[in-house]
Amino acid sequence: MNTSTVYISHWCSIEAGEIKRNGEILFSKESEEIELNDLLKAYYREKNISYPKFFKMDTLSKLAFIGSEVLLENIELEKPNLDVGLVLSNSNSSLESDKNHCESISDKDNFYPSPAVFVYTLANICLAEISIRHTLQGENAFFISEKFDAETMWNYTQYMFETNRVNRVICGWVDYLDGGYKLVFYLVEKQGNKQHTIEELQNIFN
Amino acid sequence: MKKVYINKANCFSPLGFGINDTWNAISKGDSGIRKIEKLGEIEDFCAGIFKENIIEETFAHLNLDSNTYTRLEKLALITLNPIVEKGLISSRTALVIATTKGNIQELEKGNLNGASISLLASKITTHFGFKNQPIIICNACVSGLMAVATAKRLIQMNQFEDAFVLALDEITPFVVSGFSSFQAMSKEVCKPFDKSRTGINLGEAAAAVYVSKEIKNKDSFEILGEASIADANHISGPSRTGEGLYLSIQSALREAEISSQNIDVVSAHGTATLYNDEMEAIAFDRSGLAEKPVHSLKAYFGHTLGAAGLLELIVLMESLKNNKTIISKGFEELGVSIPLNITTSIIEQDLKIGLKTASGFGGSNTALLIKKVLENEY
């Protein structure tokens, strides 16, 4: 098959109290013990991001949102944008918000299910938050896999380039459960330093 | 890119087990939706819930240990079993699973690990002896349809030679209480696109197809085109202009290299909520589909969430195969701002190309076009 050559132009990670972009530490909190919510809020404030919806999001969406802010820093995207794809994945789906919703319905004397919580009990909502932020009206999909599935992510992304559905794709992994978290996002486009290969994806992820 | 075909299918819904039972029930106008007195803390609503014990009874035919599998896993095995032949699973065969909530019942029992969707997928993989890690789509209510599109794409990329696609979700106090908090649930059988509609009925089902590069039988369907494009508008409400659905339909038509005029019949998402139905009417009209026969299947088995797109695609395949349109149950008087040709009687005519659409939370949309394989192609 004639495979389009595309590149990983930027990548970022949020893990163990550190926010990195293209391999360099952009932001960190001295204590690795910092809770994810606090780390994300600290970054939001330091960067003077003005997006009040951020505070309504569940933690998974906050994580994905900040991940996209880091990845797309200094990158101008047209609004609306029909040519940017968005493909995310994780292992624990929306289990953290699932737990919260579950708690709200577990006791019949204290029964308080809320639409604001329930809507986050879908893994793809964190993807929707990014698409709303940047008005990305391109292809999108949310995958679940026990571990980061570099091969499927690569093929799905390449497919979109080869069928001319996109000129950029935001890809990655965003996982949060019980205080444990990991985010790795990368931007695939027609120019860049790293070639988009399964091996590079594994390198970036690890 | 290489063409990809749907060769085999099966489904299990409150309407019945297997495609024949499902199709016959729909042809007779039956509904699997019934009154539910109480589920969890929610009382008095209508939903497409399996009759008690029917899953257990059907599962018993598989001669497996009943205690090893959850209710949803049993539903998965029962549904996939008839189309998985020994020898069809190679090292290049994928299993693609679509679900919104998987074994969320386990979380309600306090078993967090048991609610893991990857664990559910892994149990199905092991049971059938699939040789690759499962691909799992969790994209709200478009999941089932997106899973077929994903299988097609990964086959076209040569990651796999063929794929089994399974879409499933069940009704639990978890989802019922959630949808109820949105005030969106109907106390009667739903009426998609109708003026006096009263909201959605939830449903539960499993549906499965076998997809490959080859035409395997004369009842195969070609996947002509597909796309999944988001509204980027609101996390829980659809776009007022139907933007994402419109763009998805356009992109699917582009891939198929056909115009909307070539479409014979449209299977809408049609949840019978005001916002969804209106959004779809606008998107169909913008796509030049306002005069095409459109139906929603939600009044037959409810909104089966992650299973909906695939279950309804399978029913659409039957409609094309039989050259008969499907009555859009529950519809009497137009309740959207744009006139659509909602089907109110079975019309027998030559049907070749069908469009299936789905939309869901997160502003997600999927459009998928299928075409009946002609006898000389097989």
UniProtKB/TrEMBL annotation, chain A:
<protein>
    <recommendedName>
        <fullName>3-oxoacyl-ACP synthase</fullName>
    </recommendedName>
</protein>
UniProtKB/TrEMBL annotation, chain B:
<dbReference type="GO" id="GO:0004315">
    <property type="term" value="F:3-oxoacyl-[acyl-carrier-protein] synthase activity"/>
</dbReference>
<dbReference type="GO" id="GO:0005829">
    <property type="term" value="C:cytosol"/>
</dbReference>
<comment type="similarity">
    <text>Belongs to the thiolase-like superfamily. Beta-ketoacyl-ACP synthases family.</text>
</comment>
<protein>
    <submittedName>
        <fullName>3-oxoacyl-[acyl-carrier-protein] synthase-1</fullName>
    </submittedName>
</protein>
<dbReference type="InterPro" id="IPR000794">
    <property type="entry name" value="Beta-ketoacyl_synthase"/>
</dbReference>
<dbReference type="InterPro" id="IPR014030">
    <property type="entry name" value="Ketoacyl_synth_N"/>
</dbReference>
<keyword id="KW-0808">Transferase</keyword>
<dbReference type="InterPro" id="IPR020841">
    <property type="entry name" value="PKS_Beta-ketoAc_synthase_dom"/>
</dbReference>
<dbReference type="InterPro" id="IPR014031">
    <property type="entry name" value="Ketoacyl_synth_C"/>
</dbReference>
<feature type="domain" description="Ketosynthase family 3 (KS3)">
    <location>
        <begin position="1"/>
        <end position="372"/>
    </location>
</feature>
<dbReference type="Pfam" id="PF02801">
    <property type="entry name" value="Ketoacyl-synt_C"/>
</dbReference>
<dbReference type="Pfam" id="PF00109">
    <property type="entry name" value="ketoacyl-synt"/>
</dbReference>
<dbReference type="InterPro" id="IPR016039">
    <property type="entry name" value="Thiolase-like"/>
</dbReference>
<dbReference type="GO" id="GO:0006633">
    <property type="term" value="P:fatty acid biosynthetic process"/>
</dbReference>
